[in-house]
Amino acid sequence: MHLHLEGSSELKVDRETAYTRLTSLEVMTKSLPDAEDVKVIDAETAEATIKLRIALVSARLRMNVKILNKKPPSHAELSAEGSGTGSYVKIQSTFDLAESNPTKLTWSADADITGVMAGIGSTMLRGFAQKRVAEIFNAIQIAIEK
Asked: For 11-25, what is each residue's pLDDT tens digit?
């Protein structure tokens, strides 16, 4: 199953500060809801176990997260993939920061999901993903604007 999500928001910090914080795995991993056993391996790689519960399905996914293709102070990509509880998830996302006041963040994410999680159904999974992404970006925005 494939999902595509995109969105934008305004950040109350300058573009350079937003970029530095968005590409910090310390900031990013603290913004993930239900993440446990988080390990930042280096400046561009981290691992975490993510607990998910969608309808009657619960899963724990061991995820590898990487920040790629950095083009300071305006663009970077995030790759996350992992498996667990009979499911496999791969997420490719990008973000771009426009120089404006406030700084405009535009992002997109493509997720490929197989196994038990994919069997939930696209409507329910899309609703869950949209809710979870909103939670993540809200947490990231709070962390960036601190």
From this structure: 999 999 999 999 999
C-alpha dist (Å) from residue 23 to 87, 96, 114: 27, 11, 28
What is the C-alpha to C-alpha distance for residues 39 and 137, in angstroms, rounded to an integer?
20
* Residue 12: DSSP 8-state: S
Residue of 139, 97, 90 whose CA lies nearest to 117 = 90
CATH topology of domain 2-144: Alpha-D-Glucose-1,6-Bisphosphate; Chain A, domain 4 (3.30.530)
- One DSSP character per residue, 95-128 reads EEEE-SSSEEEEEEEEEEEEETGGGG-HHHHHHH
